[in-house]
């Protein structure tokens, strides 16, 4: 019988533990989410982040700009870097094309980088040193851990090499001693690779990219895709057929998505601890 990797259930259970830890802190944790432009998906992600923060007594401020410039954003971030009441800063991606994303992200104080996307935190992940890990990668690791899925020595294939998901995930899994293959749009004969994989993680944004014939029996499938077809949300996996063949699979919605939002909360507490000179691992 195929088992669902239920991100909502996992998030709710982990949140209880996190809330207990946050309750013990005297200071009020507060984050600021910055967004620019009119990305519909971003609006939904931000709404979820605000809701989840409120449920766990973390203040979540939202600064939205219809239009702005790289310099203006950096100015705002530098002010937040100095603000003692701000625990964490998150710049929602993607940013409009006129903005230099790299410069903006790297202007965030590494101690307040709850997304783990500054070059300092990425270098720590690369070097397997304690630091803030990008939310989707950490969410997937925590979800697999919650279901006691072993990673050591496993053949894991990631499809999608984005800075936000694929690349951080590659290093996170490597740090867990998995054997990781990172595939992308130029990969030849993807099926020959996925067929040999114990775990397949797909983060591309193409419905039905992973079909029944591409997966090994009893493998584990993690679907990071969020696509909208006729108003309905689906992932990158042909869920109905693939679910019959694999051992575990994440649903979309209700799999990786809730875990990503949970990690914003978890990373906020980690940032607070780092700011207090406390160990996070
Ligand atoms: N857009 C989609 N997912 C994410 C995320 O995890 N962090 C940020 N900053 N932007 C996103």
In short:
This protein has helices spanning 7-23, 40-55, 70-82, 101-106, 119-126, 135-146, 166-175, 190-194, 239-245, 256-275, and strands at 3-4, 30-36, 59-65, 88-91, 155-159, 179-183, 199-202, 220-223, 227-229, 232-234, 248-249. By secondary structure, the chain is an alpha/beta fold. The strands form 3 sheets. It has a 6-stranded parallel β-sheet with strand order 1-11-8-7-5-6, sandwiched between helices. It has a 3-stranded parallel β-sheet with strand order 3-2-4, with helices on both faces. It has a two-stranded antiparallel sheet with strand order 9-10.
Give a topology summary.
Layout lengths: L2 E2 L2 H17 L6 E7 L3 H16 L3 E7 L4 H13 L5 E4 L9 H6 L12 H8 L8 H12 L8 E5 L6 H10 L3 E5 L6 H5 L4 E4 L17 E4 L3 E3 L2 E3 L4 H7 L2 E2 L6 H20 L6
Parallel strand pairs: 1-11, 2-3, 2-4, 5-6, 5-7, 7-8, 8-11
Antiparallel strand pairs: 9-10
Helix pairs in contact: 1-10, 2-10, 6-7, 6-10
The chain binds guanine.
Guanine (GUN) binds next to strand 4 and helix 6.
How would you portray this structure in words?
The chain is α/β, with parallel strands linked by helices and 281 residues long. It has 2 domains: 27-109, Leucine Dehydrogenase, chain A, domain 1 (Rossmann fold, 3-Layer(aba) Sandwich), CATH 3.40.50.10860; 135-257, NAD(P)-binding Rossmann-like Domain (Rossmann fold, 3-Layer(aba) Sandwich), CATH 3.40.50.720. 41% of the residues lie in helices and 16% in strands. It contains 10 helices and 11 strands. The protein has helices at 7-23, 40-55, 70-82, 101-106, 119-126, 135-146, 166-175, 190-194, 239-245, 256-275, and strands spanning 3-4, 30-36, 59-65, 88-91, 155-159, 179-183, 199-202, 220-223, 227-229, 232-234, 248-249. The protein has a 6-stranded parallel beta sheet with strand order 1-11-8-7-5-6, with helices on both faces. The radius of gyration is 19 Å and the shape is globular.
């Amino acid at each position: 019988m195929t088992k669902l990797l239920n991100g909502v259930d996992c998030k709710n259970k982990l949140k209880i533990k996190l809330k207990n830890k946050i309750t013990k802190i005297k200071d009020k944790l507060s984050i600021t989410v910055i967004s620019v432009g009119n990305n519909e998906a971003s609006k939904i992600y931000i709404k979820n982040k605000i809701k989840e923060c409120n449920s766990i007594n973390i203040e979540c401020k939202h600064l939205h700009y219809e239009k702005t410039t790289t310099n203006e954003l950096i100015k705002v971030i530098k002010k937040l870097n100095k603000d003692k009441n701000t625990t964490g800063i998150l710049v929602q991606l993607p940013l409009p094309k006129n903005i230099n994303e790299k410069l903006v992200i790297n202007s965030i104080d590494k101690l307040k980088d709850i997304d783990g996307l500054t070059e300092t935190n990425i270098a720590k992940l690369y070097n397997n040193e304690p630091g803030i890990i990008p939310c989707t990668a950490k969410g997937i690791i925590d979800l697999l851990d919650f279901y006691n899925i072993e990673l050591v020595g496993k053949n894991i294939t990631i499809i999608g090499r984005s800075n936000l998901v694929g690349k951080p995930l590659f290093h996170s899994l490597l740090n867990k001693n998995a054997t990781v293959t990172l595939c992308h749009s130029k990969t030849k004969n993807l099926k020959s690779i996925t067929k040999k994989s114990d775990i397949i993680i797909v983060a591309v944004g193409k419905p039905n990219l992973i079909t029944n014939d591409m997966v090994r029996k009893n493998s584990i499938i993690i679907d990071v895709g969020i696509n909208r077809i006729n108003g309905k949300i689906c992932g990158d996996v042909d869920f109905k057929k693939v679910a019959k063949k694999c051992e575990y699979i994440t649903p979309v919605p209700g799999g990786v998505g809730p875990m990503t939002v949970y990690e914003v909360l978890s990373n906020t507490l980690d940032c607070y601890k780092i700011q207090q000179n406390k160990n996070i691992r």
